Amino acid sequence: MTPIHFSFTAAFTLGLMGLAFHRTHLLSALICLEGMMLSLFIALSLWTLQLEATAFSTAPMLLLAFSACEASAGLALLVATARTHGTDRLQNLNLLQC
Predict the structure, then answer these.
(1) Coil, strand or helix: which one is 89?
(2) Please, are residues 14 and 35 in contact by the beta-carbon 8 Å criterion?
(3) Which of 9, 33, 84, 95 has the fewest Cβ atoms within 10 Å of its own Cβ atom?
(4) What is the pLDDT of residue 34?
């Protein structure tokens, strides 16, 4: 495994571990998700450059578009949660009380 591939794999794994183990605030979960999407985007971009195939060149742009949609939906949920509950702590959220 090359150092470049190792760094993107480590970045994705660290984002996943942060999402799994450090679930205190909704904002920290969203930042971990964005870090994972960023590492996937860069890895997919490098993969398409290494293959030198034009057929796969739209895949990183589609991933980036879905990542932007995910970020906007996450921020909208963060604002709505902060307005209704007064905080973004994940322990205070209960889907049964909505």
Answers:
(1) strand
(2) yes
(3) 95
(4) 93
